[in-house]
Each structure stands twice: as C-alpha cells, then as structure tokens.
Amino acid sequence: MKKCKKIVCAIVIACILAGAAFVALEFMGVIDLNSARKTEEKSETEQDGNKIADDETEPWHIVFKGYAFSVKPVGLAIIHESGCLNIRSCDDYLIQIDVEDKTMADFWDNREQRKKNIEDAGYVMELEPEKFEIQGKEYIRYIASLANERGAKFDRSYFYQLICDAGEGQRFFTSIRFDEIDIDALSGAERAEVYEKAADEAVAIVAGAVPTDETNDMTGSYWQEDEAMETGVVDSVVNGDTTVSYEIPENYSLQNEDLSGKTYYSDGDKITVVTSIVPYSWMTASDMADRKTEAGISKVTEEGQCEVNGVTFYYYTYSTLYIKDGKRNITYYFNAYADLKDGNIYTVSGFADDNPDAMDRDTYYSFMNITEK
Known about the structure:
Blueprint: E1 4-8, H1 14-24, H2 33-36, E2 60-64, E3 67-71, E4 76-79, E5 85-88, E6 94-100, H3 104-109, H4 111-120, E7 123-134, E8 137-147, E9 156-167, E10 170-178, H5 188-207, E11 210-211, E12 221-225, E13 234-239, E14 242-247, E15 252-258, E16 261-266, E17 272-278, H6 285-290, E18 299-308, E19 311-324, E20 327-339, E21 345-353, H7 365-368, E22 371-372
Antiparallel strand pairs: 1-12, 2-3, 3-11, 4-5, 4-12, 5-6, 6-10, 7-8, 8-9, 9-10, 13-14, 14-22, 15-16, 16-17, 17-21, 18-19, 19-20, 20-21
C-alpha cells in the first residue's frame, strides 16, 4: 500500500508552462506571483494515513477557492500557480478545475463570442457547446483541439471542457487535457470511451465539491502517492529539445514528474527540491532572481551569484514564520536560476520546515552541477 502525503511547494515555472492553453480556452488565465501568493495559507495538519480498508486510503481533502474537494488518492493533485486545481490520476489526461465568479448562463448566452475567441486563438471546435444533464445537474460541454502545440507529444492536442454552476454566482470550469494519448489514432468508439472515462472522473470531483469556511490550501500544495526512485544516479529534466542532467544526492528520491519539472525529497533532511526549465522569454536568470521583490517574500536572508562547473547561478534565500498550535515555526526557502545556452533558464528551488540547511547553497550543489544537452 502506497501512503499519500501532502507537501507544500512554490513552483515558479508552473504558470509559464501551463497557462497559455487556459487563456484561450476561457480559464481565468495565468496569475502573477503577487496574486498567487495572496492565497491564504492553511495550517498544515499531518494525517496519519489510516487505512479505511485493505485496499483504500482516505480521500485527499483539498480546499480550493472556498470549496472542499474530495479526490481519490491516486496519482497527483496540485494547486497550480496558474490559479487552478490540477489532478492527474492516470497517464492519459490531466484534469484542471477553476472556480470562476461567473455563471453557466454567462457562458451560454455569449457562447458564439466565446467560440470565436477560441477559434481566433488557433483552436478548432471539435464539438460545439451543448447542454446536457448528469444525475439531475446541468452542464455545458464542448471539445476543442490545437495543432502543433508547443511541447505537445502529439501533432494535435485535445481539450474536453465542462462548465456547471457552483452556486452564489460562481461556476466550476473544468478542462480535461489529453496530453499523453494520441486521440487522432483512436477509432470513434475508442475516442468516445476515453472521453467518457475522463468526463465521469471530472464530474465526480466537481459534484462532490462543497462550500466551506476552511482556509484555502496554499498555491503550490500538492498531494501524491509515494513513488520513490533509486538515489545516487544521474537524472535529467527536459523541456522540448533541452535536457539538463545532474546527479541525485544520496538520501533524495524522485517524488513527482510533470510539466512543471521534477520534485525530489530527502527523508533525512526533510528538504524538498524542485528542478525546472523555463522556456525562452524576454527574462534572463538574473531577471527572475530579481523578481523576489514582487513575490511577497517576508525576509530575504541572502542573495547573490555563484558559478558551478562553469554555469552561473543567480540565487536568493528567505524564510517565513508561522504559528502552529501556539508554536513558532519557520519555513526556509532557496531559489536559483541559470541561463542555458539555448536561451532557456534552468531553475532549482528548495524548502523545508524548521531546517535552515534548506537555505544553504551547498545543499543544492549536485542539482546545480549540471550538464546541458
């Protein structure tokens, strides 16, 4: 039986990698670091993970934008920097949920303009917006596709969209992104089966969401099954044609791999490390390090630059104080950025509760001693 754990992590790159599709498909769009960090932090209570039965564990309890979601503890769920809840329970698709301050009627009454906006962004409407009911609840659905999406595995990417009212002038907007299955290679019956499976899972999650006064889980929080890998081996993070390799230090194991990069965890030091590649933009590594002043960081303890194996990293460290059960606790953070030869940026970030070693540059030497291909 795999245990499920919740880890809090601020992944700066996540919004850059996944945000573009959300805008065109009527998500709220990518939020900047200032608004992302305005999300209220929820005091963390570690669950013991007691088994309900021999083959079950407690569902993940996720509080997102005023709603409590119960998610089957399979795969990965993350409160994404782009402002949505991402859930991946299988390899075929990614479920992305947002809570919007609009109603289903707002979309339906303006569906022709929404359709035009989507098509103007380069998407093809595979299924026109239509209304349907599941278990007495009304939904809007449509399917859009995009050819030659940057970083996509297949020639055409498909998105199954669901909209339903959440109550009090709000709606759930759910996008199912089929990023790991070639939809074009499926027969009509096979495609319908894949769509139905994904939609049933998404509807079950949304239908079970209830309003709550609980404090929202913070941006970057994620829930996953433990799937550790062998340590002391060379690993790499990939974005498009860019590959950055490094050696995983002893006592660290791979916890997660997705579009935002790779996440490692040390059982001994209780330090979480995230490696990513930021696609080429107008920003440099130095620019990204300078953005710390915009990120709502409470106290910068060190900043500067260093060179590791000929690669220059711009870095800063900081800490945040929080009170839990009347006790003062400190979370320590490290962020570093390096310009790659092709214009992309390699990032290393880490954090740990009550362990100042998480701010020590030497802690991340192996992850910064990189080989670029």
